[in-house]
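Appendix B, example 12.
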Amino acid sequence: MAFMRKSRFRHVFGKPEKRDQCYDGVRITKTSWESTYCAVNPKFVAIITEAGGGGSFLVLPLSKVGRVGMDCALVAGHKGAVFDIQWCPHNDNVIASASDDCKVKVWQIPDSGLVTNMTEPVCDLNGHQKRVGLIAWHPTAQNVLVSAGSDMKLIFWNVGTGEPMLEVAVPDVVFCMSFNVNGSRLAYTSKCKSLTIINTHTGDTVKEKKKAHEGSKPAQVAYLKGGQLLTTGFSKMSERQLFLWDEKNLDTPLNEMEIDSSNGVQFIFYDPDTAMVYLVGKGDSTIRYYEVTDEAPFVHYLSMYQSNAPQRGIGYMPKRGLNVNSCEISRFYKLHNNGLCEVIPFTVPRKSELFQDDLYPDTAGDDPAISADDFFNGKDADPILVSLKGGFKSSQKEEFKVARRSNILDKMPNRTSTIQSNNSASAPAAAAAAPALPPQALPKDFDAAAILAEMAELRKTVKEQETRISTLEERLNTLDSDSSAAKDPAEGDDD
């Protein structure tokens, strides 16, 4: 007799919000890049949009539900299509974007949202030679961002200074990357079908698995809390797979699961507090969820959310943005092909209205554990945990600013910044450069009234001369017209 495994998440269910509580009329991007196209935090929802002659994305406050106007303000500073957007985990007003124009830009969004199009970022990160397809924020270090480009490079940035701190050469185009809990390791999958773990301080390869999945379609990876890695990919027969790996030994997966034969890439969303994994296939109309435990077979299927419409993209709300009063354990923002962004909360049915400690253990807050300088000096730290009892309250954040460090080797300053600095500082600079002249005493015979009278007389004379010139020009034109009229009849008589 088979016994069903016990789990407090077995009866988790998803129920979409009504259409008037969703976001409708969004011009979702049509790019073929394998991305989720959506990013969410407790303040805003951001969606990559279709744009002609450049790249843009939409940012809306969560409370601004309903139909999105055609003239809605956008973040439109890229010259190429936007491929990826990610909110900063330590500042809910800061978002980074990666684009086809080879640049990564960091933006500061006002609390009230955008009123006009935003075209000027707070920070430009220039270092890639080809398009940038992926970005990821460090989970515990402040202002640390990693970007992956088609130039086969990973670049670790100190966003606070706008500097590239570490460049790592990779064998092929990176499809997905994920930090471990404290950010000391980064796992990524690439076009050459390999699964690689690197040291984030040195860039050295720690472990590598050639052909983690045999299929050629993009594989995804998520670093789990206990030092395990979860990957989704395809077999030689294009069957979708789910593998669990141990970071210390990538020779053989701990668990192998065949899911189905669909062709959509499966994005992984991992909740370290509940050890639940959500698989969202692009083009699917389902969301599967699993539970990861310490007991074999380690990955246990729970259930599946089904709908009628396929998903073009998906956004996932961090734990601190959920409604703990309704036992909500996750929330997805599903992008439809018709421009609808549908909100789907997942809840655990509970009769009690008290705070459920087993569903909401302490989770990562929005305060960084270490600074960027500490991280690039080799330090690591686990995330600072906060309690969700009574609802999460974000700490007050200062406006994001970039402190550029001087470079004595840079003899060619940026043209735009030079022009702006010259325009803003030309007057003070000129005043500072010119020596102060001593005050001069007026002569004794100085007569201001006589000078003003002489100036008035000169103005009167100039005006009279201008009138005379106009009169002479008119007389000259009259004489020219009379001579022409007299000449024409004479020519007619000759004929």
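The chain is about 15% helix and 35% strand. Residues 406-439, 490-495 have pLDDT under 50 and may be disordered.
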